[in-house]
Amino acid sequence: MFAVLAFGWLNLAFRAWTRDVAHWLILVSVAVAAVFVFFSVSSFRRARQL
């Protein structure tokens, strides 16, 4: 689920980049996507340990 959300945020960042939006908005969306990727990887690893 977190990976799907991360993909959505990266899609929003790419669309903002092509429409010449403020750079800080693009950085915020990339940062949120990075957090979701981290949650995705860590939850997958934790599920594999059980």
Description:
By secondary structure, this protein is mostly helical. The protein has one domain (2-49). It is 88% helix and 0% strand. The protein contains 2 helices and no strands. It has helices spanning 2-18, 23-49. Helix 1 runs antiparallel to helix 2 (23-49). The longest helix is centred in the C-terminal third of the chain and has 27 residues, at 23-49. The radius of gyration is 13 Å and the shape is elongated.
- The total strand number stands at 0
Could you say how many structural domains there are in total? 1
N-to-C series of helices and strands: HH
User: In percent, how much strand structure appears in the residues?
Assistant: under 5%
Which regions are unreliable across 5 or more consecutive residues at pLDDT < 50? none
As a whole number of angstroms, the C-alpha radius of gyration is 13 Å
Give a short summary of the structure.
By secondary structure, the chain is an all-alpha fold.
Helix and strand topology:
Elements: H1 2-18, H2 23-49
Helix pairs in contact: 1-2
Features:
50 residues; mainly alpha; 2 helices
